[in-house]
Amino acid sequence: MRSSKSMRKVLGNRKTRRPVAAALALGMCAAVSGYAAEPDSGELDVVQVRPNFYMIAGAGGNISVQIGVDGVVLVDAGTEGASDRVLAAIRKLTPLPTRYIINTSPEPEHAGGNGKLAKGGLTIFTNPLGNTNFLNAMTGGGASILAHDSILQRMSAPTGKKSNFPVDSWPNEAFRQKRWYVRMNDEPIEITYQPAAHSNADSFVFFRKSDVVAAGDVLDTTRFPVIDIANGGSIQGEIDALNKLIELAIPPGPFIYEGVGTYVIPGHGRPCEQLDVVDYRDMVVVVRDVVADMIKQGMTLDQIKAAHPARPYETEYGTEEGSAGAFVESVYKSLTGKK
Ligand SMILES: [Zn+2]
């Protein structure tokens, strides 16, 4: 099933939609597990999610691609090392320029490609007086990089620390509100900040007309959720964010074979439906409850880890080495307040 350079149309034929989507899902799982260790020279997978909407996998984190008359809107940019291949993949989809890159998180696998992909795009800001210096001051003439302020703060490493990212990859349109939006390609695009979930800098990006949500690392079908306690993540924030994702997504019905409902693009792994997010949320809640019980019994972190509270889910989410242990540890630290 893993095809390759060629684009695969997931939803072309209504009658075969579900089986094709299911087969793809299995293929994707196999193809994308162990992402973190994947070398930057790997092939990209381009999956058509809707007529005007694609997902690019294999460049680090998943990249969402919305295409229309205004140009291209990307959610996330993959790693810096994959940028040339991502640019080539987008070029195969459309000759139109990238106008916006919207980030879901400040991790290098999601935002590392910001600079190169923005440079390969074209600003939407026009100036009737032809003053190009004004444009260059805003975006360098390339695509805008739009993100919640928490992402800019992390990427620019304020006060005393050195940034891991070059300045041209930092968001040049940052917002502090919990909810922000742009309208591109005749579609409202809504960005909602999710506090203290995978980290202190997560956003969902909801394409209201395409009915697709890019969820970033709050949802990761290749492993247990990574909760970055040191950077402000928390188990309760992760569960809250997954619940919000479930509320945003709509399942198919009453004609369940006629549609797939809202698509949820995870930070890593296959495109999901609402029910997949419900399953993932339930898994996270069950493991949280078991760990909470063990803490109540007075067990230490080592004893809890040795008891494998996430064992029922390890075959599905624990294939990446250390994923289950890291998740259990983050739940423990989050519940006990220990760092
Ligand atoms: Zn990620």
Identify the notable features of this structure and list them briefly.
339 residues; alpha/beta; Metallo-beta-lactamase, Chain A; 34% helix; 21% strand; globular; binds zinc ion
Task: Please write out the topology.
Layout: E1 8-9, H1 17-32, E2 45-50, E3 53-57, E4 63-68, E5 71-75, H2 83-93, E6 98-102, H3 108-111, H4 114-119, H5 132-139, E7 144-148, H6 149-156, E8 173-175, E9 179-184, E10 187-194, E11 202-207, E12 212-220, H7 235-248, E13 263-268, H8 274-296, H9 301-306, H10 314-317, H11 323-336
Parallel strand pairs: 1-2, 5-6, 6-7, 7-8, 12-13
Antiparallel strand pairs: 2-3, 3-4, 4-5, 9-10, 10-11, 11-12
The structure holds zinc ion (ZN).
CATH class: Alpha Beta
Low-confidence stretches: 1-39
Report the total helices.
Answer: 11
Kindly report the average pLDDT value.
Answer: 87
* Radius of gyration, in angstroms, nearest whole number: 20 Å
Q: Kindly, what is the distance between the CA atoms of the first and last residues, rounded to a whole number of angstroms?
A: 43 Å
Global outline: globular
Assembly type: single chain
Query: Would you give the CATH topology?
Result: Metallo-beta-lactamase, Chain A
- What structural class results from the helix and strand content? alpha/beta
In N-to-C order, the SSE pattern is: EHEEEEHEHHHEHEEEEEHEHHHH
Helix content: 25-40%
**Could you give a short account of the major beta sheet?**
8 strands, mixed
Total number of β-strand segments? 13
- CATH superfamily placement: Ribonuclease Z/Hydroxyacylglutathione hydrolase-like
